[in-house]
Write a structure and sequence with these properties.
27 helices; alpha+beta; 61% helix
């Protein structure tokens, strides 16, 4: 009973924890949204920064921060400039009246000088640093002159330092202020931008100099908190960089803080290195850095003060919600959160692309439906009746309109007149009207203008038939275009599905393969699994420089074959060019079958140009195609027709369009391209190398033969050659091929070539069965030789024979057993 209660309580407690976590996340999200609204949209952030920058003084008397901040805010956030200016003056008042006076004079001088310069130069962004440089220099010299009445070299030097720093800080603030105010989607910060933000934050913290409580300095606490935050988020490099920049700015404000730069840099480095221990690991890094640098710099006198400052910074760091660190991490390259953001962005782009491709697929499908015209029998009969009525009405209009017997024929005897003229029309279509004396006599008795009507029908019937033929051709063309558009739609639909397919997470399998190979003594740098689908394995690895010894093919691929329990081969290998580099290797599934081909061909009369063309095509999806095309006749023109057929076939099949649509497309192209009676045959075999299933499409071609041991299988289909008619149905013959089969395909010059042979099928089967060799090239040569020998050495037609041997694809290297076999 207790076990049952415990089992019931566990999911309830987990559900309660999940709800609590959701409530906490929702609370922090609401609070952060309100803080963001209050600070950014209301402009309070500019008031806080301005107040602290108004207090920021370096080298005891230099004020380089105030005017650059005011100028940047005036240029980018003009509506917040007044608040920023008043905050700067208020911050200066907390130091002394003279500081506030200098800030006020510099702001007024800047506004006057900026108004004058803006009337001369349109690009204020480029001019702003120079305006601030001049304003600061004039203000500093004027203030020094009003106090001393005589300027010294030191005054000029300090004016140059302050104006130069102001010039640089203006450029930095122009970069950093938009980063803290703008809400960009997918914002990714560069290292330079992070440094600009750090300089801004360090400048703001300079305004905290002098703020203390029982020797605990505010700038020390907040600077260490910032270093902790960035070391935890960005690692040792970011943490060390932030420590150096922050410590440098603070040391300029107070020379006593010079050792603080080393403390922050070293703490940032240690905190970043220990961030695998989460927040506590980073905090330990800060404590160790604080203790070591304090003992080295100032001894044990201020050790407790330093430790207390560090502990307060750690407490603030531990109290920082995860929502804040996660949001900051999204903007820093190299973090997991940033990588996830990038993946989401890439996924969104992928989905948009897939959706766009799918939309194009739907467009092509809609176009296909609009072109497809399907007629049932009743609609066709109605159409024929309407066309007959229109034809007879045009004949009546030109012959019967002014006849005196019009009323008698078309009112009193409408049915008889209509039937007679319809009969004459059909007889003229078949060219049998002149021989039908009975119909001619009957019509002559019925019509007073029989000769004129007969002549008119005979003349118009040719135009009528031409119009009928044209309409039929248009309908067939529409249907063909519809099929082609549907094929393109299907290809684009498949492409959309492929784009949508995400790479599956195979982290566990990657670790298993990595451990198995490393336990065997092979050093592997990285393993990426893209697919573990049976027959479609896709794995990439990075290994140290192999010096061309072929370790991937000889060792790693056989081990993967044993681990994955299927034959794995090296698909692609990129070896490093130097000893310390890495080789990148791609592994994939080996096909179950492979095909070796042999070809023998000859032109008519031993010429150089044959009317036959052939091709072996790797379709790239585990399929292999063999094709022979025979152009009508011989010579250059026949070779051109057959070669064009093969090239079109190769391009269309490799695009992924179905075989039948490809054949019909080629037929339409050949039939529309020329008015000459030029056509070509096509013999196509497509073999699936994974299971051996094959498709045979024979367009006006001769039979093919499959030799399986002592058995000969004939493969044939009845299809007219391409280019003869516009519309034809393609018969597809299927056959399952096995290892050891020989597929013999030939043109009519080979099949019908033997002289004094009545049954070409039996002759060819007997010759193939008598051959003892299994080499495809030898079989092709022997068949060619036998045919030519029956013709007493004469070649009376173009001859081509292609022999394909289907064999098991045995890997070059045997599998190597591994202890950890099962991947799951």
């Amino acid at each position: 009973m207790e076990k049952v209660e415990r089992r019931l309580m566990e999911p309830i407690s987990e559900l309660g924890m999940e709800k609590t976590q959701q409530v906490v996340n929702r609370f922090f999200h609401r609070i952060s949204s309100r803080i963001q609204l209050f600070l950014l949209h209301k402009g309070i952030i500019y008031g806080l920064i301005g107040f602290l920058l108004g207090r920021a003084i370096i080298l005891s008397e230099v004020l380089p921060f105030a005017l650059p901040f005011f100028g940047a805010v005036l240029l980018m956030k003009r509506d917040k400039a007044l608040l920023a200016g008043l905050s700067l003056i208020a911050g200066g008042l907390t130091i002394s009246f003279h500081v506030a006076l200098v800030i006020t004079i510099s702001i007024i001088g800047f506004l006057i000088l900026n108004r004058l310069v803006s009337s001369l130069f349109k690009d204020q962004l480029k001019v702003l640093p120079f305006v601030i440089f001049g304003t600061v220099a004039i203000t500093r010299l004027a203030y020094s002159f009003s106090i001393k009445t005589e300027l010294m070299l030191y005054d000029y030097m300090m004016a140059g330092v302050e104006s130069g720093l102001s010039f640089i800080l203006t450029l930095i603030f122009l970069q950093s202020i938009p980063l803290i105010s703008a809400r960009k989607y997918k914002q990714s910060l560069k290292v330079e931008e992070i440094i600009c933000i750090m300089i801004l934050l360090a400048s703001v913290m300079t305004g905290l100099v002098g703020v203390s409580f029982q020797n605990l300095q505010a700038e020390h606490i907040f600077s260490r908190y910032i270093v902790l935050l960035f070391a935890f988020i960005g690692g040792s490099s970011i943490g060390c960089t932030v420590g150096v920049v922050t410590g440098l700015i603070l040391s300029l404000a107070n020379v006593g803080n010079l050792y603080h730069m080393s403390l922050l840099a070293f703490s940032g480095l240690l905190g970043g290195l220990l961030r695998e221990g989460q927040k506590f690991g980073t905090a330990i890094g800060l404590l160790v850095g604080s203790v070591l640098i304090s003992l080295y710099g100032q001894g044990s006198a201020d050790l407790m003060t330093t430790l207390l400052e560090s502990m307060i910074a750690i407490l603030l760091f531990l109290l920082t919600p995860k929502v804040v660190t996660a949001r900051l991490a999204k903007h820093i390259p190299g973090t997991n959160e940033h990588a996830q953001e990038q993946q989401q962005y890439v996924r969104k782009i992928r989905d948009v692309t897939a959706h766009r491709v799918e939309q194009f697929s739907q467009v092509f499908h809609a176009l296909s439906e609009s072109f497809a015209t399907f007629y049932d029998k009743d609609e066709q009969d109605d159409s024929e009746e309407r066309e007959t009525d229109l034809f007879l009405s045009s004949i009546t209009e030109s012959t019967c309109q002014h006849c005196f017997k019009k009323e008698k024929c078309w009112v009193e005897n409408f049915d008889k007149t209509y039937d007679l003229m319809q009969s004459i029309m059909h007889e003229n279509k078949q060219n049998t009207y002149k021989s039908n004396m009975k119909l001619r006599k009957e019509f002559d008795r019925h019509c007073s203008k029989a000769n004129k009507v007969e002549e008119t029908i005979e003349q118009e019937i040719n135009y009528f038939q031409a119009n009928q033929k044209l309409k039929k051709e248009v309908q067939e063309s529409r249907r063909l275009v519809a099929e082609q558009l549907l094929g393109v739609s299907n290809v684009m639909g498949d492409l959309s599905k492929e784009i949508k397919r995400e790479r599956e997470n195979h982290f566990v399998q990657e670790e298993q393969i990595l451990d198995a190979l490393q336990n065997f003594g092979i050093e592997i740098v990285n393993v990426d699994i893209f697919s573990l689908e049976q027959g479609n394995v896709d794995i990439e690895m990075s290994i140290p420089f192999c010096n061309g010894h072929g370790e991937c093919e000889k060792i790693i691929a056989p081990m993967l074959s044993d681990i994955l329990e299927e034959s794995i081969i090296v698909k692609k290998e990129e070896c490093a060019n130097y000893p310390n580099g890495y080789c990148h290797v791609s592994f994939g599934s080996a096909k179950k079958y492979r095909i070796e081909t042999g070809v023998a061909h000859a032109a008519k009369g031993g010429g150089l140009v044959s009317g036959d063309s052939y091709s072996m095509i790797d379709l790239g999806v585990g399929k292999f195609a063999v094709a022979i095309s025979d152009g009508m006749g011989n010579g250059v023109r026949a070779h051109f027709e057959s070669n064009e057929t093969i090239k079109l076939l190769q391009k269309i099949l490799q695009s992924g369009i179905e075989e039948k649509v490809a054949i019909k497309t080629i037929n339409s192209i050949l039939s529309l391209r020329t008015t000459d009676e030029i056509f070509s045959t096509l013999d196509l075999a497509i073999v699936d190398l994974q299971d051996g299933s094959s498709k045979f499409l024979k367009i006006g071609s001769t039979p093919s033969f499959v030799k399986r041991g002592d058995k000969i299988i004939k493969i044939q289909a009845s299809n007219l050659p391409m280019g003869i008619i516009d519309d034809f149905d393609v018969d597809v013959v299927g056959e399952k091929l096995k290892a050891g089969d020989l597929l013999i395909m030939m043109s009519d010059g080979i099949f019908e070539g033997p002289k004094h042979v009545e049954n070409h099928d039996l002759w060819m089967k007997r010759k193939i069965s008598e051959m003892k060799t299994t080499d495809p090239q030898e079989i092709a040569d022997l068949i060619m030789e036998e045919v030519i020998r029956t013709r007493s050495g004469k070649i009376e037609d173009d001859m081509t024979v292609v022999v394909s041997a289907i064999e098991h694809n045995t890997p070059k290297w045997a599998s190597i057993p591994v202890s950890s076999k099962k991947i799951g």
